[in-house]
Amino acid sequence: MFYISYNKNTFFVTQFSNVPPTHNNYIVLEKEDLNGIENAKGNLCNYKVIFDKILSRHVVINTNKKNFYDTSIRLKKIPVTDEVQTNPLTIEVEGYKLEGHLLNVGNPHIVVFQEISDLELTKIGPIIENYKFFPDRINVTFAKIEDSENIKVNVWERGAGKTLACGTAACATGFIATELKLSRNPVNIHFEKGFLKILINENKTITMTGPVSDQKIIEVRV
């Protein structure tokens, strides 16, 4: 039997042990469940490898239990400069007049309920990310309401650019859509690669559920 400790914020494995840890951030696996993963003892290991075994390729992150995505629409929590007095915020970028909903779910987001092409996102995404109103920069999501249960998004992630998927963008989009009665609760947020189901709990925490990609064991030399 192995006790596998993990970082509660990143979900990366931090330690393999034969004895129970003194903290609560661990899972328990039988040796046969590890399927060779025990060879990674002492090294960091992506949580997907282990959760693929114990959660039948389905991972549920409950933000109340994990202290993830403490949602806030307060302007000082986003944060924004003192020039911003309203939420949603209207900005003009490269001829586009956009109404963006501001939200912090552990990092800052602006959600615009408008369809946008990849080319357009590549053009205006970095401008919005670095807009003068956002001192810490901001993640940018354009969302199209497909129906009451499905929303398609295109995301420009701060510091990374156009991204195929983003958990916090899904949470931000689901939260705003639910608050504005634009969707049901829960709602499916669709990316270019896969989707996430977002549930807004009564206490305004967020439960994010989604598939895990196939397990891969790789060797990295550094």
What does this structure look like?
The chain is α+β, with helices and mostly antiparallel strands and 222 residues long. The chain has 2 domains: 2-54, no CATH class; 75-211, Diaminopimelate Epimerase, Chain A, domain 1 (Roll). 18% of the residues lie in helices and 33% in strands. The protein has 5 helices and 13 strands. The chain has helices at residues 31-34, 47-54, 63-66, 118-129, 167-179, and strands at 2-6, 13-17, 26-29, 58-62, 89-93, 96-104, 108-112, 139-147, 150-157, 161-163, 187-190, 195-200, 206-211. The strands form 2 sheets. Strands 4, 5, 6, 7, 8, 9, 10, 11, 12 and 13 form a 10-stranded mixed sheet that branches. β6 and β7 (108-112) form a beta hairpin. The protein is globular.
Key attributes of the depicted protein:
Diaminopimelate Epimerase, Chain A, domain 1; alpha+beta; 222 residues; 5 helices; 2 domains
